[in-house]
Amino acid sequence: MSFYVVVAMTILNHFAHKGGKLLIALYAIEFGAGPQIIGVLFSLNSFCSLVFAVYAGRASDRFGSRIPLVLGSLGLGCGLLLPYFIPRLETLFFAVMMTGACYVFFQLATQQLIGALGSGHQRTHKFGIYSLGTGLTALLGPVVAGFSIDHIGHHLTFLLLGLAPIGSLLIMLMFSGSIPSGVSPVKREGHRAMDLLRNVPLRRALIAAGIIEAGGELYTFFMPIYGHALGLSASLIGIIIGTYAAASLLTRIVMPALVKRSSEETVLYISLSVAGVACALFPFATSVYLLAVISFVLGLGLGCCSPLSMITVYNRAPAGRTGEALGLRFGATKFSEVAVPVIFGTLGSAFGLSPLFWLNAMLMMSGAFIMKADAGRSGRKS
User: Please, are residues 138 and 245 in contact by the beta-carbon 8 Å criterion?
Assistant: First the structure.
């Protein structure tokens, strides 16, 4: 029961979070904001998550999961309701900062809690279902938000999305007894986040997590630009990106079975290798069908990498510091979201898109090389 309560809460909150990103961007345009202002809004959200990531992980270790779950859901809901009550462009800046700073508490608490609710293959299975839920809501959130904006307007859509986290809190109140506290009795005095980086296997997993996020960000960032340069319509570009999302969901369904036959590290190594090969092929593709096929293969490669990196980090974290380790992982992925588009965008302006796809391929292959040292080992923490 505990696991499905957490998944239900995650679906509602992740749906609101993903839909809210699209809604805030389109609402900012209604106020006359340009790409630069919208870029600042997105960066602020990721930056606030990055700043609070380690602290949020420590909070889960020290106080258990319930307080961060409440804080994250309440902060996300209030952040999305703020523009409903104060419909101004300036309000959106406070909204993205509030949602970014608070939602990280919910995310890390759920990840730590799901890891604690199972071990071995059971843990992998639970993370697979969790990631499948987040993958579905990542698709549904923007779609529902878009249709809602067209039919009831931006203002009421903020109310609709803001009520979803409130529903998450109601679920938690109804089933509060089934959610364990998650507090570990391990002493934490004198521990610093950087101490975890001395753990070599954990450090490799954290680096791989950053590379995985960078690969996904670069695809979503450059694929529309590349498609536009080829003269493709917006709908065709959307279909191509949709094949990537569909493959990501598919590979998350079969991920537990793949891991059961080998290990998390082995599947992660193979997946990153497949993603690297797919990235290298993009500059040679000019037709819609070929781009869709390569995007599908890339989705097969990167789709299960994110949940596998969560599992690997959790398994390798010291007892009583799993939340903190997950916070470092989250910080690494958010740093990629903030820095990678800016750095690669500058390089793309100078050298064109083709070298960037190959550079992304090298990045994926370097992640595979990092994980190859642990491929074949179970690396599970019971």
Answer: yes
Same domain, 172 and 203: no
Residues 221 and 140 grouped into a single domain: no
- Specify if 39 maps to a domain: yes
Question: Which alpha helices (H) appear in 282-353, and where do they start and end?
Answer: 288-303, 305-316, 322-351
pTM of the shown model = 0.72
Sign of CA dihedral 233, 234, 239, 241: positive
Residue 86: which region, alpha, beta or left (left: phi > 0; alpha: psi -120 to 50)?
A: beta
Query: CA 314, 45, 233 angle in degrees (round to 5)?
Result: 100
Identify the residue whose tokens are 């009583």: 320
Same domain, 217 and 171: no
- Asked if 86 and 300 count as a contact pair (C-beta separation under 8 A), the reply is no
Instruction: Name the nearest CA neighbour of 108 among 188, 191, 43, 50.
Output: 50
User: Which two tokens mark 204?
Assistant: 């490799």
pLDDT above 70 covers a percentage of the chain that reads: 85
Residues 6 or more apart whose CB falls under 8 angstroms from that of 51 comprise 101
12: CATH: 1.20.1250.20
- The answer to whether position 25 is within a domain reads yes
Residue 304: pLDDT band with limits 50, 70, 90: confident
Q: Are residue 145 and residue 210 in the same domain, yes or no?
A: no
